[in-house]
User: Fold this.
Amino acid sequence: MTDAKVTFPSGFLWGAATAAYQIEGAAAKDGRTPSIWDTFSHTPGKVLGGDTGDTAVDHYHRFADDVKLMAELGLTAYRFSVSWSRVQPTGRGPAVQRGIDFYKRLIDELLAHGIAPSLTLYHWDLPQELEDAGGWPHRDTAVRFAEYAALVGEALGDRVELWSTLNEPWCSAFLGYAAGVHAPGRTVPVAALRAAHHLNLAHGLAAQALRATVPARAQLGICLNPAQVRPLTDDAADVDAARRIDALATRVFTSPLLFGRYDEDLLADTAKLTDWSFVREGDLANIRQPLDFLGLNYYTPTLVSALADGEEGPRDDGHGGGASPWVGAERVAFHQPPGERTAMGWTVDPTGLYDLLKRFAADAPGLPLLITENGAAYDDKPDADGQVNDPERTAYLHGHLAAVHRAIADGVDVRGYFLWSLMDNFEWAYGYSKRFGAVYVDYPSQTRIPKQSARWYGRVARGGVLQEPPR
Ligand code: IFM
Assistant:
């Protein structure tokens, strides 16, 4: 491979990503109150091993060392999320200064090390009080979110240029309210659709609130996890199954965000559940706000086929069981795409990332794209010398970065890549059993050990040139 083929554009962001509940710990410190994930993880049987984010990887106290480590690795950007209930404990009213101060300290540390902060306002941790008042299926939650966005914008707008409103609203809506495998653990199909709409509205209202509070240089976007859906065969029924899943996984967000509409096929597929009258006049205009970038999170493609009435088929869509999140598209089978799998059981297939980038370059011409998450879990362990060698993760990153480079070479405007995740952390319903980190965390001692993949990624980041994985 020659350098010319694998050199990324100058200014390309080389980052890693995390989320507040997955790393911070300090769950009851400095005025923070429970979020839906605190409640969910403390409910017996919801999270593997009864794990919680109470301590997580104690980033709240160790952030300065963690930033130092990022700088040593050569990262130029860091994507983190703000814990809503740390800065606005009840989801209403003024900001709590101690909560804000934590993020100020973190951001100042990043800036001092030349690392661009990329702030996500919401990565799934709704203040419990807002869930008690109805949660995302309830319209007022979107209004509350815009108020929270304004508070954070006012407090941190001078320090942060890259802003994302929501992370993976699909998971919040469909895993949280239909499948029940994520907080708040409800299994009410129509609640998921209402939640999806109110998350879209929350994004639109928050984007407007941010534009009014943060300096004009700020870049605003949203991080989605569009499914890269493929039909098992060319059969019309399978192609239609892929269309149904695409509508529910991706277009339920991208069509209102980018085009100001909910697609007719989505409305038809879900008509037996709702007439969508919760979409009020003016909502779609509020949702369709100018974006400075679209964040894409990608891990694996989705392979589907149609199920005839009464027919059974494989149903593991990789989201950990529970009720079906695919409300209105229940007659779809999910197949394991061929290829190697990660410890999550997710197939490694970088062509899905390439296809996704090409799709959004076509669907949203002129809109810069960021890979805001991509990575893999493996069963990493330190060896006798205390080193963590993770060749599978390096190969995964290499393959996906090559796919990003290929898309850029084809003219797709990709501005950066954030590896998921900076360090091992609380992997939601899987607790601490899945390690996505480039940095290994020994949980009892909280010792951080950069894995071999982190060192490799750092070399790529420093040179802006894709390196061959170590042999
Ligand atoms: O850990 C999660 C993250 O919080 C959101 N995107 C997917 C990751 C891996 O499952």
